[in-house]
Amino acid sequence: MFIEPDNGPYHRLRVSSGFDRTDITNLDEFVRRISAAPLTYEPGSGWGYSNSIDVLGAVIERVSGQSLPRAVAELVLTPLDLKDTAFAVTDPRGLVTQYADA
């Protein structure tokens, strides 16, 4: 979770950074929750880490009418001829052996 008090708006609205909980599997639900949170700062007066890239992903899905992985593949990866880049591993030979889990 982002640095905020335990009673902060993200905690109250159950907005997750993705590292602490994965109970939100629907991007629309995530955007609904995060849009209910007040701004932490007045625009231009401060900065903090956020889920803005996730919100941008939702915008791309809506505008393109495609899932985010499909839109990124069509608009970015294919034109750049990035055959081994995706949201999930497609060829297990590209994985490394994990020797320790610390």
Give a verbal description of the structure:
By secondary structure, the chain is mainly α. It has helices at 9-12, 27-35, 52-64, 68-77. It has one domain (9-94). The protein is extended and about 45 Å long. The model has no long low-confidence stretch (mean pLDDT 83).
List keywords for this structure.
mainly alpha, 102 residues
Short description:
By secondary structure, the protein is mainly α. It has one domain. The chain has helices at residues 9-12, 27-35, 52-64, 68-77.
Unreliable spans are: none
Q: What's the story with the biggest beta sheet?
A: none
Question: What does the overall shape look like?
Answer: extended
Order of helix and strand elements from N to C terminus? HHHH
Number of domains: 1
- Multimeric state of these chains? single chain
Radius of gyration: 17 Å
Number of helices: 4
Indicate the percent of residues in helices.
Answer: 25-40%
Number of strands: 0
Q: Provide the β-strand percentage band.
A: under 5%
Q: Report, as a whole number of angstroms, the end-to-end distance.
A: 21 Å
> How confident is the prediction overall: mean pLDDT?
83
Structural class based on helices, strands and sheet pairing: mainly alpha
